């Protein structure tokens, strides 16, 4: 798989990398037992400036990050990584192009979410895929990938799924187009197992799986998308393109579309029954 490009679209100027940097700086400050007011005073900065750094709305200068990392007692590899991060982020601006390694940027953002809302019209959502289905999808996506690369990517996907079973589990709401479940990804045996997996997961209280029938036109015909509801940060929407992920600060158009899709989809119990019946078609 070649490196993917993540583009940030939004009027706020809060770039993806800047928000991740700010969130980590806030975590380090909390870990050091310091308030924002204390740090701002020691730096000779306004408290509002520090708040904007930590929210990602304003990028700190490299000397400011040096000072904060010294104050928080950050050393070694993480210190070096954060300093590189601020330099990289400052090299970008509102239309941000970030050459990311595989799906690392999205996975980091997803790890900060308490809820994921997703519409997929051509494939089972990654958080609901079996290893065999994921392997077939990824192989089709990049036929040149080595077996080692495929297993690494499948491993990342399976690791992301663990949050669905945490003590404080990730909330997942999905609407899946019927066509995605009729596409024989990996062959009949893989599809039977995948559909059973969907039905089983749909019984979990933190997971909602809704099936959108093929019968009519619908609001999501333009593209699939994901809305990430984040803790202590602005929510983000993302959609995949052949050139990489595009991130949007304004999630409301996507949330509205998802509500319309959910209204057109089957109820959750009817969705599960229909998916279970579809398994018999893969022989």
CATH class of the largest domain: Alpha Beta
- Backbone structural class: alpha/beta
Distance between the termini: 32 Å
Largest sheet: 8 strands, mixed
Order of helices and strands: EHHHHHEHEHHEHHEEEEHH
Shape: elongated
Low-pLDDT regions: 1-7, 9-14, 92-102
Rg calculated over all Cα atoms: 21 Å
Number of domains: 2
Approximately how much beta-strand content do the residues carry? 15-25%
The count of DSSP E runs of length 2 or more, i.e. the number of strands, is: 8
* Average pLDDT metric: 84
Q: Which CATH architecture of the largest domain?
A: 2-Layer Sandwich
Number of helices: 12
Into which percent range does the helicity of residues fall? 40-55%
Strand order of the largest sheet: 2-1-8-7-6-3-4-5
Q: Which fold name is given in CATH as the topology of the largest domain?
A: Endonuclease, Chain A
């Amino acid at each position: 798989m070649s490196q993917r490009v993540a583009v940030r679209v939004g009027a706020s100027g809060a770039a993806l990398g800047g928000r991740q940097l700010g969130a980590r700086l806030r975590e380090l400050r909390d870990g050091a037992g310091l308030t924002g007011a204390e740090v701002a005073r020691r730096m000779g900065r306004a408290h509002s400036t520090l708040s904007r750094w930590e929210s990602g709305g304003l990028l700190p200068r490299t000397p400011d990050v040096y000072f904060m990392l010294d104050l928080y007692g950050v050393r070694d590899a993480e210190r070096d990584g954060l300093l590189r991060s601020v330099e990289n982020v400052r090299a970008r601006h509102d239309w941000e192009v970030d050459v990311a390694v595989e799906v690392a940027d999205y996975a980091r953002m997803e790890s900060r979410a308490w809820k994921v809302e997703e519409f997929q019209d051509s494939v089972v959502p990654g958080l609901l895929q079996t290893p065999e289905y994921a392997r077939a999808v990824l192989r089709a996506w990049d036929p040149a990938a080595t077996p080692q690369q495929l297993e690494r990517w499948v491993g990342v996907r399976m690791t992301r799924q663990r949050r669905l079973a945490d003590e404080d589990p990730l909330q997942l709401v999905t609407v899946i187009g019927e066509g995605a479940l009729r596409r024989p990804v990996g062959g009949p045996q893989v599809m039977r197992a995948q559909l059973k997996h969907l039905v089983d997961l749909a019984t979990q209280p933190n997971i909602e799986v809704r099936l959108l029938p093929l019968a009519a036109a619908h609001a999501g015909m333009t593209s699939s998308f994901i809305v990430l509801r984040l803790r202590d940060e602005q929510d983000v929407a993302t959609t995949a393109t052949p050139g990489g992920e595009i991130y949007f600060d304004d999630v409301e158009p996507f949330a509205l579309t998802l509500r319309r899709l959910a209204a057109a989809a089957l109820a959750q119990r009817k969705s599960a029954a229909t998916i279970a019946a579809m398994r018999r078609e893969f022989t």
